[in-house]
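Hi L.,

As promised, 5-methyltetrahydropteroyltriglutamate--homocysteine methyltransferase:
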Amino acid sequence: MQLNSLGFPRIGRRRELKFALEQYWRGEISQQALLEQGQRLRRQHWLWQAEAGVEQLPVGDFAFYDQVLALAATLNVIPERHRDGDAIDLDTLFRVARGRAPTGKSAAAAEMTKYFNTNYHYLVPELHRDQQFAIAWEQLFDEVEEVKALGYDPKPCLLGPLSFLYLSKTQGEPFDKLSLLPALLHTYGELLARFKAQGVAWVQIEEPILAVDLDRDWQQAFAPAYEALSQAAPKLLLTSYYGSIAHHSALVAALPVAGLHLDLVSAPEQLDDFLPLLQSGQVLSAGVINGRNVWAADLDLLAKRLAPVADALGERLWLGSSCSLLHSPVDLDVETTLAPELRQQLAFAKQKLHELNELQQLLQTPASEPARAIIERCKARREARRLAADSAVARRIAALSQADFERDSEFVVRQQQQQAKLRLPLLPTTTIGSFPQTAAIRSLRNRWRKGELAEAEYRHQLQQVTRDSISRQLKLGLDVLVHGEAERNDMVEYFGEQLAGVGFTKNGWVQSYGSRCVKPPLIYGDVSRPRPMTVEWAEFAQSLTDKPVKGMLTGPVTLLHWSFAREDISRETICTQLALAIRDEVADLEAAGIGIIQIDEPAFREGLPLRRDQWQHYLDWAVASFKLSAACVRDETQIHTHMCYSEFNDTIAAIAAMDADVITIETSRSAMELLGAFEAFDYPNEIGPGVYDIHSPNIPDVAAMVALVERAAQRIPLRQLWINPDCGLKTRSWDEVEPALRNMVAAGRELRRRCPLPA
């Protein structure tokens, strides 16, 4: 009974990869030093997995920016604008991802979007009608040799050809992506042959698109594709995750693969669907340890459920996590300050591997002393998990009525009252919320957290930073200002730290994209807001100017999705609790004189189930939670929301139902392509399509921004448009931000000159 690791986090338990990447981009270390740091991390992570009993160590889960981008480089799918000669090197990948690298010319970065229903962002491969595939990047093969040199068996992890095509976008003249499948399969065949020549026994070939609804052409492509791949290849472990693939059970059961991995955390019921369909000798990898949450597993209950399967399959049953552990923090061992009662409930990536080992013990030697100790520990943990409910929160939810979810008037009425109060020009300019988190700000926060800086002095220093942010915006000429969020470490963590029922780690970092890591809160109990969280800072910033300053909040849906939420009650209930907490903050901001309040929901689309027949239930409660958080304000108070790096076509009606007065969205990387959904739907409210790609250090010029807004104006009435960046600016430097915003304001003035309308 093997233990199956689908992949391990690559950032390091203290974010070593993040810091090395950023040092390299700043020119502080050489590329060789960066490569050596990557090698050290891979070695450590492989050794941890081997120590836990994993026999075949995953290869291909490590990437210096994104594993989909690394595969695109392997297949020679690199846009011409990012190439610097024929060869592909590490800087080529960074030019694709960031638009800039220490070598080569800068160019517009590739589009980045969410990987299925996760908060991980991947770089979207760009395909042309005459696309040629070839093996052009050797990292996968090099890492196979690294594992062999350590004395272990490598298991390459490879995104399958159909999922690669599905996640890609076509460029130039429209064509059917599936027309490229024969050429792509030829190169995949070469990849698999190379692995076999290296002595690889198994390849984990991942087809996550099996969890979504596929049309007939995509379904029919699987059988011939895998018939071709199975010829003289290593054994293939067809791997799915993030949802059930039972709706494709007949298709999957007929594929010539040696093994099948099922996500039995998100869809435990599919085990019963596939057990009778297993082919003779076929391995079943049971993904029973949650790769996307941090709560320790009930191993005794899992063993009881899997015991009949183990009896039936014997060594053909593998035990694994539901998906790659990429979505988990690295190591609980470095959390030395957690309360013991919370710590005992947790398992990070390294600990999840040991959970697999313990589950194996329970199945193979259930009567042994170690097995009995595991069972007692699981029972004690479940008992400790029975937290007392907050009766006040329960009573408040029970008392809600439909009126609590609706604004007083329709948007057209609110719009008139808001314009009369705010007196904004045509095409108002604003930013999304955050300004650069400089080294000085981070140092200030660290000194305060360590007790080296008194509370009063810390607040005084942050007030000076806020003064500076307001002053810079006034000089730039922005129409609607923000306070800059200098006091915030992260848009979710900051709020979670101030909510009851929420806990935090010090090193529970998870990669979001590239070097960007987040530290999700731990929602362990009923959530409420003991006191105001942002009012003091918004009120102070507004006192510095007559121009409107937005109150900045993170919405309930995003707080839920970007946290590690408890699993003993529904996510809908947790989201309602969060909505009530944000509603209290919205009411206090309005009472303090804040006329524009932005409730960010970048994770709204991310939470959408992969199967269409499950969408409506999710959308109903997600929309209701947002409306509950915002509906307490008067008509004259303008509610904004922000969404980024998502496709909107499928959810545009739900986004409209949220009834935000203004929505700002990411569109610059897609050259306003995402606005097609808003045009076709005839979106009724106001929209700020992003014109500045904040994930690239490149500074857009005035003409480029004007062209983007003009393209937007072809789809959206001018009266409805705002001008803003794609997202918050905390990761950029002021040297980049100020010229970019200066150009953005100039673009707004140029457009008003060209298209004058009455105020």
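The chain has 27 helices and 22 strands.

Thanks again for sending the construct details.

K.
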